[in-house]
């Protein structure tokens, strides 16, 4: 099946300006992405002269980008060309602007005089170029006027050439030769190709300004032009016909008689199936429009149905959509279920089609009727419930619909029970069939007899005249001079004296008769005949009218310069009939709507019949004198005589508004009548919708405003916020459906504005601040209600801004309670981060479920929420430390209880919190210290998880942020490789090393700075250290090793009560325990003197060995403090159920990381970073003022922290003192870089 929008098939055959109107229609739909359509629109506009429109479209696509220079330069060029053209064409513009010349009919003569004073060929070129320039600039009316001028002057030139051409009249093909000679003379000035271009341009300009009558004339002229071309290949003719059928869609689907003309184009025998062949050959996608025209044209359906079905059957392999499938299902396969299903699918196709959207309701209604009619002709009894199910209607509504349909279609049926309809199927008798087929035979026989008698009388008169002529010489003498002047001679004639013996094919020359003067009051006598015909049409007695004879009378009157008389008399006649219609409508009282609807339908039918009689006047005289067409004149008369009559107008509008009011209160009304009435108002606007807007729309909107203001006041005091929003949305949906069913589409935005203003904008703040308002919905996560509020308040000025403000206030207040006021969560890393993660997840659910469009959270709301998270999280100064500590804990414990993918997802969520931190350098400092401990003390659960986390930080902050972290991993890998080489070295060494030594070689710039600590190692350890140091320095000359015993660990084997244990201790603990190999008891001072380690580290080591649960040493006195006089002895009675015992380091409150010390270190690092940034910027710029320099520094360092302007200024002063920068001598706020 074809897509709902055949844009890809149609656009290649349309002019770019016609394509623009198609793109504007698509922008109102949601078939294609809006950005893609705007790009296509801009690409088209920049190839035209409509530069302002192109610039506006560019701003919609790129709001922050500068306007391209080629557009601005092109605008200047167009203005210059416009001025030049205006100077060259001024004379013709002045003539066209004088309405007085148009009224007295002298315009063509004046323009011809202007042509005569110029070079004709150059003048035609100038007018063509100017019209094309105006068309490209979007001035379609001016372009159409000058193209019409071009064609009228061409016609005058052609007529003058025909008159001036001398061809002997005795030549049998004299007429054709004169025409050919005239064409040749005209084409010497205007080529046939250019004339064709003018016709195409005139058609496009008329379409763009919606002048459908003129556009229809252009379509007819182009048909003739294409058919009359000589020396053109059939392929080119086929392509031109393809263009024409595509362009004519704009005309046929907007002209009042367009659907009939569309069917004529493809099925009329006079077209010799040329355009039907065009569809089958190059444009099968146009079958859709042929089907739509047939379904919407009840009068011609029966005549053309077979041909259409045959065409669809032939073409269904090449093209098919819901419309064609519906027709085939119903009229070919007689599958009613499939037809109903296809009809339901047609709605989407119709709504999204540029040409078929206005026909949607009519197509669907007719489709339902056709299904029912075919079903009625097939079945004797129909179940109403089944029909209701097929039509997707409630049974009561379906029953009413069926009753109306039976009445309108005049079907012989009745409802004999509450659930079924009985059909009476009549088989006509032979007598009836013969009578039906010969019904018009009498009229046709009489007409044929009259024509035969007329011919016989003319032949008898000719024979009598010939008998009176004595011989040929008389004939010649009687009219010789006139014959000779005409180019004929008597010897070319053969005349017999006896009429009874006159042979077939001989000429009879009658004596010359002088032209007779017109009969007195001729025009009045002819008008009397025409007036009787018009009266018969209004009396519904038009079956006996001879349209051919009436057309001939009208044609003669126009030719004899009585066109204005005829037009005015016809106008007066129609007005007099409509006066009676107005009285009848007014007298109908309560049934005014039904009566008016019937009279309107009859008037439209009457005007079509009248237009057919006065067709020649309509096509020639009316257009030349710029009068409304006959049909439009009838519409204007109906508007003025009936609709705008005060007593009818007031009651009509009041009754329509009352019907709408009843429907708003839940009652069922006749929507079809209201649809016809509103469509009548639209049609009576002729070239616009002013009648609809002034007569109906303004009072409708005013009454709707009053209704919804009253209802909103009632609801706001009774309903909760969610309930009120549900009712408001329901009302808005009802109004939009009302517009779709029986109002005009231009009312859509206006009634939407009325409902939104009365029910939402007026109570906006109250709705949001209610107890059940926005905050309650956010707290309880009522996503459906939030989404409804977001949808409804979107179009309200300031609506979403207020919602966003309240949302941010709620998030800030709730977040502040979590990170500042909650004692438990604000002081511990685990609860702090987990609470934030949970709250962020809730915020994400609110954004995605309540504040999203097109399935994606609103970008502005997301940005506002993220900024709010940033504000409240950074109120807690420990936030960077807590986030780093939380990650440290997770990386230590690893994937216990969760998968690796879940762990990675957790990292992503924590990384979101990391983005909200202002002081990312503090996070980096803590994370680096904790990573160092995990790596050195072998506490990390997985190197892979560590690398994943570092990769995410690198992706977030860049390589510079994680370069040191990567370096730490590199050092650990290099250390492992170095130790493998050292072990190979020991295997060949002369002096064996009794200790299994593993050294981690750390690059000083990568790892956190550590305090240099002394410690006397046991002899065994010291020998191993010296051996490694001599090996390493011998291998890497120029390097220096600094030992950090406080970062090491050791495994000791110890025997207690004959049982061997393996103790895992720190390096300091190992040094202390090794002292007890020689002595059982040692004092604190002795241990301090023998180890020479820092006092603080010694106390921590002794405390962990003697004061914890695992007591390898015993202390006297037995208390919780380590004193200078304390005595320690080896605990020989130590026992533990595990062979391998880990002794953790004893930590006191004095040993914890000091935040003040960490902050001081970070501040010092920040000073260096600010100075480096200032120097880098100034080196690149050389000169910079104070404000711009501070802004650039803040921008450069934003990813790590937000420096205060005061701190930046202090660093600048420091750089000035050290001769990196200097102030300008005249402007003290300007700095210069010193190389």
From TrEMBL:
SUPFAM superfamilies reported for this sequence: Cullin homology domain, Cullin repeat-like, Winged helix' DNA-binding domain
Keyword Zinc: no
Entry annotated with the keyword Cytoplasm: yes
PCI domain residues: 251-429
Transmembrane region(s): none
Stretches assigned to coiled coil: none
InterPro entries in UniProt: Cullin, Cullin-like_AB, Cullin_homology, Cullin_homology_sf, Cullin_N, Cullin_neddylation_domain, Cullin_repeat-like_dom_sf, eIF3e
Cellular localisation: Cytoplasm
Its job: Component of the eukaryotic translation initiation factor 3 (eIF-3) complex, which is involved in protein synthesis of a specialized repertoire of mRNAs and, together with other initiation factors, stimulates binding of mRNA and methionyl-tRNAi to the 40S ribosome. The eIF-3 complex specifically targets and initiates translation of a subset of mRNAs involved in cell proliferation.
Sequence similarity: Belongs to the cullin family. Belongs to the eIF-3 subunit E family.
Protein name: Eukaryotic translation initiation factor 3 subunit E
Higher taxonomy: Eukaryota, Metamonada, Preaxostyla, Paratrimastigidae, Paratrimastix
């Amino acid at each position: 099946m074809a897509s709902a929008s055949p844009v890809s098939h149609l656009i290649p055959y349309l002019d770019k300006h016609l394509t623009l109107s198609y793109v504007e229609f698509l922008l109102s739909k949601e078939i294609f992405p809006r950005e893609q359509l705007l790009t296509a629109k801009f690409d088209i506009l920049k190839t035209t002269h409509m530069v302002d429109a192109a610039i506006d479209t560019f701003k919609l696509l790129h709001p922050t980008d500068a306007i391209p220079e080629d557009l601005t330069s092109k605008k200047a060029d167009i203005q210059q060309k416009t001025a030049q053209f205006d100077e060259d064409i001024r004379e013709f513009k002045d003539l066209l602007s004088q309405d007085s010349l148009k009224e007295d009919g002298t315009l063509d003569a004046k323009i011809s005089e202007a042509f005569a004073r110029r070079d004709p060929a150059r003048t035609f070129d100038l007018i063509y170029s100017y019209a094309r320039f105006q068309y490209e600039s979007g001035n379609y009316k001016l372009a159409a006027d000058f193209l019409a001028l071009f064609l009228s002057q061409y016609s005058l030139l052609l007529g003058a050439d025909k008159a001036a051409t001398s061809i002997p009249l005795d030549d049998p093909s004299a007429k054709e030769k004169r025409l050919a000679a005239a064409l040749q003379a005209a084409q010497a000035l205007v080529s046939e190709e250019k004339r064709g271009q003018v016709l195409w341009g005139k058609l496009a300009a008329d379409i763009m300004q919606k002048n459908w009558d003129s556009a229809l004339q252009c379509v007819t002229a182009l048909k003739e032009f294409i058919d009359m071309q000589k020396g053109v290949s059939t392929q080119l003719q086929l392509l031109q016909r393809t263009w024409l059928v595509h362009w004519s869609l704009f005309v046929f689907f907007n002209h009042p008689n367009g659907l009939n003309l569309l069917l004529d184009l493809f099925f009329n025998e006079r077209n010799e199936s040329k355009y039907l062949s065009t569809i089958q050959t190059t444009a099968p996608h146009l079958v859709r429009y042929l089907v739509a025209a047939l379904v919407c044209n009840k009068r011609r359906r029966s005549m053309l149905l077979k041909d259409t079905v045959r065409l669809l059957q032939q073409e269904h392999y090449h093209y098919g959509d819901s419309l064609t499938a519906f027709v085939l299902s119903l009229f070919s396969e007689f599958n009613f279920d499939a037809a109903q299903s296809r009809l339901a699918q047609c709605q989407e196709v119709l709504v999204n089609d540029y040409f078929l959207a206005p026909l949607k309701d009519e197509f669907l209604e007719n489709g339902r009727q056709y299904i029912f009619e075919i079903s009625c002709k097939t079945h004797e009894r129909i179940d109403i419930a089944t029909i209701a199910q097929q039509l997707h209607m409630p049974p009561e509504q379906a029953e009413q619909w069926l009753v109306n349909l039976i009445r309108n279609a005049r079907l012989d049926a009745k409802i004999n029970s509450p659930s079924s309809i009985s059909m009476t199927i009549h088989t006509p008798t032979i007598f009836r069939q013969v009578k039906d087929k010969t019904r018009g035979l009498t009229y046709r026989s009489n007409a044929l007899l009259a024509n035969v008698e007329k011919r016989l009388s003319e032949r008898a008169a000719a024979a009598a005249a010939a008998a009176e002529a004595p011989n040929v010489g008389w004939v010649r003498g009687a009219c010789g001079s006139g014959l000779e002047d005409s180019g004929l001679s008597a010897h070319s004639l053969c005349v017999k004296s006896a009429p009874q013996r006159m042979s077939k094919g001989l000429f009879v020359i009658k004596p010359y008769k002088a032209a007779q003067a017109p009969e007195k009051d001729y025009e009045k006598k002819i008008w009397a005949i025409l007036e009787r015909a018009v009266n018969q049409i209004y009396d519904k007695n038009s079956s006996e009218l001879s349209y051919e004879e009436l057309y001939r009378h009208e044609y003669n009157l126009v030719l004899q310069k009585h066109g204005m008389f005829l037009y005015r008399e016809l106008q007066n006649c129609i007005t007099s009939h409509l006066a009676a219609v107005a009285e009848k409508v007014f007298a109908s009282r309560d049934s005014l709507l039904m009566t008016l609807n019937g009279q309107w339908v009859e008037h439209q039918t009457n005007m079509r019949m009248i237009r057919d009689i006065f067709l020649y006047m309509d096509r020639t005289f009316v257009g030349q004198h710029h009068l409304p067409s006959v049909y439009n004149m009838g519409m204007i008369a109906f508007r003025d005589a009936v609709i705008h009559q005060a007593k009818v107008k007031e009651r009509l509008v009041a009754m329509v508004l009352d019907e709408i009011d009843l429907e708003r209160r839940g009652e069922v009304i006749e929507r079809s009548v209201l649809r016809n009435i509103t469509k009548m108002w639209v049609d009576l606007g002729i070239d616009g919708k002013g009648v609809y807007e002034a007569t109906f729309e303004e009072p409708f909107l005013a009454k709707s405003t009053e209704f919804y203001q009253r209802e909103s006041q009632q609801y706001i005091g009774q309903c909760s916020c969610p309930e009120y929003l549900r009712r408001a949305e329901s009302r808005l949906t009802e109004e939009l459906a009302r517009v779709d069913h029986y109002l005009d589409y231009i009312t859509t935005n206006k009634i939407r504005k009325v409902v939104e203003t009365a029910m939402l904008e007026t109570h906006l703040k109250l709705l949001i601040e209610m107890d059940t308002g926005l905050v309650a919905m956010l707290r309880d996560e009522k996503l459906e209600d939030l989404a409804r509020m977001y949808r409804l308040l979107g179009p309200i000025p300031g609506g979403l801004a207020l919602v966003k403000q309240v949302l941010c206030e709620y998030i800030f207040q709730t977040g502040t309670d979590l990170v500042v006021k909650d004692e438990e969560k604000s002081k511990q890393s685990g609860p702090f981060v987990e609470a934030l993660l949970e709250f962020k997840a809730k915020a994400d659910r609110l954004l995605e479920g309540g504040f999203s469009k097109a399935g994606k959270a609103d970008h502005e709301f997301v940005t506002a929420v993220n900024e709010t998270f940033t504000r409240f999280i950074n109120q807690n100064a420990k936030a960077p430390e807590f986030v780093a500590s939380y990650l440290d804990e997770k990386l230590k414990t690893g994937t216990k209880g969760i998968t690796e993918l879940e762990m990675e997802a957790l990292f992503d969520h924590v990384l979101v919190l990391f983005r909200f931190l202002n002081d990312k350098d503090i996070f980096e400092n803590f994370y680096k210290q904790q990573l160092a401990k995990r790596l050195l003390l072998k506490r990390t659960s997985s190197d892979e998880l560590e690398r994943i986390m570092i990769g995410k930080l690198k992706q977030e902050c860049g390589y510079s942020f994680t370069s040191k972290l990567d370096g730490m991993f590199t050092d650990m890998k290099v250390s492992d490789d170095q130790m493998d080489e050292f072990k190979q070295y020991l295997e060949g060494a002369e002096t064996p090393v009794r200790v299994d030594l593993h050294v981690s070689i750390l690059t000083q710039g990568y790892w956190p700075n550590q305090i240099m600590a002394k410690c006397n190692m046991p002899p065994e350890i010291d020998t191993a250290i010296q051996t490694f140091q001599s090996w390493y320095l011998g291998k890497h000359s120029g390097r220096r090793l600094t030992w950090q015993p406080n970062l090491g660990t050791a495994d000791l084997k110890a025997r207690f009560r004959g049982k061997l244990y393996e103790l895992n201790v720190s390096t300091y603990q190992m040094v202390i325990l090794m002292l007890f190999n020689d002595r059982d008891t040692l004092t604190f001072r002795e241990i301090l003197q023998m180890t020479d380690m820092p006092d603080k580290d010694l106390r921590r080591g002794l405390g962990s060995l003697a004061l914890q649960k695992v007591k390898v040493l015993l202390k006297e006195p037995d208390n919780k403090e380590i004193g200078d006089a304390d005595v320690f002895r080896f605990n020989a009675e130590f026992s533990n159920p595990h062979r391998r015992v880990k002794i953790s380091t004893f930590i006191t409150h004095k040993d914890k990381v000091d935040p003040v010390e960490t902050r001081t270190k970070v501040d010092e690092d920040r000073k260096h970073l600010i100075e480096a940034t200032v120097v880098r910027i100034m080196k690149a710029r050389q000169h910079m003022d104070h404000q711009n320099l501070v802004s650039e520094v803040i921008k450069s360092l934003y990813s790590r922290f937000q420096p205060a302007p005061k701190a930046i200024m202090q660093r600048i002063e420091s750089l000035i003192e050290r001769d990196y920068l200097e102030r300008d001598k005249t402007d003290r706020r300007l700095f210069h870089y010193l190389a």
